[in-house]
Structures are given as structure tokens and as C-alpha cells.
Amino acid sequence: MGIRSNTKLHAMTDRRIGIAAVATFAALVTWIALTGDALAKRARPAPPVEATAPREAGEPIMAIVSIKSQQVTLYDADGWILRAPVSTGTSGRETPAGVFAILEKRKDHRSSMYDDAWMPNMQRITWNGVALHGGPLPGYAASHGCVRMPYGFAENLFDRTRIGMRVIVSPNDAAPVDIAHPALLTPDPAAIAAVPTRAVTLSREAEDATKAADDARKAAKAAAREIAPLKATLRGFERAKARADAELTRADRLLAGAKTDEAKARAEALQQNAAQQAGEAAARLATATADAEAKRALADATRDAAKAAEAKKADTAKAALDAKLAQEPVSIYISRATQKLYVRRNTHKPAPDGGGEVFDATIEVPVTIRESDRPIGTHVFTAMAKSDAGLRWSAVTIDGPDDAREALDRVTIPPEVLDRIGPTALPRSSIVISDEPLSAETNYRTEFVAVLSHQPQGGFITRKPTPNVVVADRDDHWDGGFGSFFFPRAPEPQPQPRNPRQQRGGRGYPQPMQQQGWQPGWQPSW
Predict the structure, then answer these.
(1) Family per UniProt (predicted)?
(2) How many Å apart are CA 498 and CA 447, to the nearest integer?
(3) E-strand spans in 351-483?
(4) What is the largest CA-CA distance in the chain?
């Protein structure tokens, strides 16, 4: 009995201990979970909110979108001025990270791709449909590739930006830092002061050269019309002389064969007449030949004069164009992938096929990059304001192993380019150094479009590529300093290929291929 009671007592005690242990373990799990949540909340950064710098703001120079923080920050010459939360592209339709500029602005825009969706205060950064605009913000990346901003913020921003303003989309948080380096453009105050007068003078010279070229072309055409019938005319005189010579030869034979005095007299008369006719035919041929040679010489001279006038027209137009563009900020793109340097400046001329403005792209040259087989990153250098040294520059790095200064150390800008654009460099000018080639979305209506190829960009590659619209070079009269230089000789950059770099385990994303040929009635995607 005693043994049975002790066994029962031990069993009850074990059950109580087990229940207590379970309760203690459950309490411990609950405490750990609550503590973990608290720590997670404490470690998680606060969501971005709209903010305005506590000072008077200047005109925005650049916008930086952080995909990581889902935030956009606007900067003027003195620092940040506006911040707001954003919603970038969702998984599979990611907003492309890279370097862009505002290409077009529409106050009230509706999508042609997404069921007439309202996209107020739209500011386009690619022609295939990526833009900044007002939209709903759920607190995470949810768009189809655009950058949604708060409605009120987008409206406020719309009236403060301009075509060509730099937009940087960074995978991580990035901000401009001050930088000074010998490779950055240093303007010449005297050259800048002379630009307006020089532009007017060269524009007038270009107009005069255009008129002279038109007159020379008309004179050359008139001279060409004069000599067109000469060949047939000379053939007529040559045939007439040949007939006269034949008659003279026949008369000579008749005279030689005459047997009687009467026959000799008739033959002599015939010979004299034939000789006179042959002489006159020869004289007419000689006169016509001399006249033809004079007219041919005049035609050659007028043709050479027309060529020289056309060359002068082109030279003066180019000089006038450079003088006009010297009043605009200059943008330079240096690509390690293509080993080329590209220059863009806004002409402020409306694009002839609708939408946006034409950017001059007449400068495209090879560039030297030291250790060109080694990645250099992607860095954006911007002239923020004038300074005692010329310009105050900032640098934004969004990718790569090199810092901004090391990237500049590795690049040698050709002296002829520096001589052409450096002395008149203005605030808002920029230099972009990147591993990436220019995207196929870069064309005559864009500044630069360059995408980080190892970053997701579903919202970019899933859109219909912009047609490669071929616009004929204009050959008409001088057009206010731009004329036939709207559309440059340089070919469009090759489509951006998959980046061979596989940094950080990232995978390459193919870029859209350009469509070839004229596309009448082209409309931007989305």
C-alpha cells in the first residue's frame, strides 16, 4: 500500500513539473517574440516623409531616387531642398537604376498602356515610358516602372524643374559630395563674357554664308544649263565642217581630172566655192569650240565656287551653333564599354516629330581610360554653382569599385574637346563616367540614358522600345543658328548589352533593341 501511494505521489509531482516547464517555455517563447519584434521595430528605419529644407530654395539641379529607401531628394546649388517618399517599380517591373534627365513634362497625362491611368504632373525620363509622376503610395515598391510621388509633392515639383534636369536612380542611398579635380571643366570668364556677342556675330555670318551659298548654287545651276546643249551644238558644227571638207575634196578631184578648158573652169569655180565653204565651216567650229571652252570654264568655276560657299556655310553654321550652344550647360558621358566620349547640349528646338526637344550630339570621340579592362563604376559629376576657381562641382556615385576621384584619375579627356567646351562651361554642366554604354533609348531627343545592367530593370525592358526615328539632315536656309545641325552625323549608340561584370552575384538584363527606319506618327510608349 505504501509503495503504491509513493508511486502515485511521484507521478503527480512529475506531471506538475512538466506543466510548469511547458508554461515556462511558452512564456519564454512569448518574451523572445515580443522582444524580437521590439528590436526589429527599433532597428527598422522610419519610413520616408515629405520634408522641405529650412531655407530659401533655389532652382533644382538634380533629383536622386533611392530604390532602397523609396525616397526622392531634390538638390539645388546649396544642398537638398525637397524630400518625399516614392513608390518605384514592383518585382518584375523594377524601375531601372541609372542616369537620366527630364525629357518632357505634361501637367495632365493619361497612360496609353495602363487603361488610361491618370499620371498627373508627369515628367518623362525615357521615351519608352519611365517617368516621375503623382500617384498612390502604398509604402513599398508597387508601380509598373515609373516613380510615383505624392500628388501634392509632384504638383509642387512640376513647376520648379526644367527639361534636361538630371535624374539619378540609385539602387542604394546616394547623395552629392563636393569634389575638386583637374579633369573637371574650368571655364574662362572672358570666354563666357564674349559668348553672347560672338553668337550674334557668327549667326549673322552664317546667314550671309547661307545666302552666298544659295546664290552660288543658283549660278552653278545656270552655268550647268548653259553648257548642257554645247555638246550637241559642237557635233552639228563638226558635221557641217566635215561635209564642207568632203565637198572641197571632191572639187579637188574634179579639177585634177578635168581635160578641157571648159571643164577646168567649172572645176576651179566649184573648188573655190567649196574652199570658201570649208573655211567658213572651220571658222564657225573654232568659234563654237572657243565659246564652249569658255562656258565650261565658267561652269567649272561656278561649281567650285558653289562647293566653297557650301563649305563656308557649313563651317560658319557649325561655329554659330557652337556659339549658341556655349550659352547652355554641357553634358559629357564617358563609357568604359565603348571607350568613347559623348557630348549633349539642349538646342531648345521642338522635336520635329512631336514631343520633347532636340539635343545637339555633334561631338563623339574616342577617349582614353587607364586600365580599361577594370570596372570603373558609375559616377555623376555636376557643376553646382560658380566659384572663385570657376565652378564648384559635386559627385554622386551609384555603382562600382572606384570612388569618384579615382574614376577621374583614370580618364583622359581629349584636349580638342576640352578646348571646344571647357572655356564656356556653365553651372548645371555635368560629366558622367560609367562602365555602361549608352542605352538604346538615347537618341536626338534625349540627353543621356544609361542603365545599370546588373540591376533589375523589368519596368524598362518590358516596355516597347522607342523607334529609331531617322530624320533627314536639313539643307535649307539658315535657321536661327541651328539649321542642318539639328540631326548629327554621329550614329546612334549601340543598344546597351548585358554587362559582362557579375558583381555582387547580380545577373545581367538585356536591353531593348532599336527598331530601324522612319516611323511616321510616332507616339511615346505608355
Answers:
(1) Belongs to the YkuD family.
(2) 22
(3) 357-360, 364-366, 368-369, 378-387, 390-399, 411-412, 430-434, 450-451
(4) 190
Q: Hey, how many other C-beta atoms are within 10 angstroms of the C-beta on 238?
A: 14
Return all residues near 520 (Cβ < 8 A) that are at least 6 apart: none
Q: Would you say domain 328-454 falls under CATH 2.60.120?
A: no
CA distance 220 to 10: 124
CATH superfamily of 51-171: L,D-transpeptidase catalytic domain-like (2.40.440.10)
Task: Please answer whether residues 339 and 366 qualify as being in contact, where contact means their C-beta atoms are separated by less than 8 angstroms.
Answer: yes
Q: How confident is the model over 289-331, as pLDDT tens digits?
A: 999 999 999 999 999 999 999 999 999 998 998 899 999 999 9
For the segment 417-446, the average pLDDT, to the nearest whole number, is: 95
- pLDDT tens across 41-60, in order? 445 567 788 999 999 999 99
146 classed as catalytic:
yes
The single residue of 133, 144, 379, 454 carrying the catalytic annotation is 133
What are 453-483's pLDDT values in tens digits?
999 877 676 666 766 544 333 333 333 333 3
Q: Identify the H or E element spanning 256.
A: helix 230-257
Q: What is the mean pLDDT of residues 27-44?
A: 49
Closest alpha carbon to 393 in 186, 187, 183, 178? 178
Show me where the domains of the chain are located.
51-171, 196-316, 328-454
Half-sphere exposure of 440 (CA within 13 A, CB side): 22
CA-nearest of 338, 340, 343 to 366 is: 340
DSSP string, 269-329: HHHHHHHHHHHHHHHHHHHHHHHHHHHHHHHHHHHHHHHHHHHHHHHHHHHHHHHHHTTS-
Percent of the chain as helix, strand, coil, to the nearest 5: 40, 20, 40
Q: What is the dihedral of CA 253, 258, 263, 265, to 10 degrees?
A: 70
Euclidean distance between the first and final Cα of the chain, in Å? 90
What is the rounded distance in angstroms from the CA atom of residue 478 to the CA atom of residue 206? 7
Specify the DSSP element, H or E, that contains 459.
helix 458-461
Q: Is 109 a catalytic residue?
A: no
What mean pLDDT is reported for the chain?
Answer: 83
Rg (CA), the chain: 39
Contact, 140 vs 148, CB < 8 A? no
CA quadruple 490, 496, 500, 504: dihedral sign: positive
Catalytically annotated residue among 144, 146, 379, 454: 146
Same CATH topology for 51-171 and 328-454?
yes
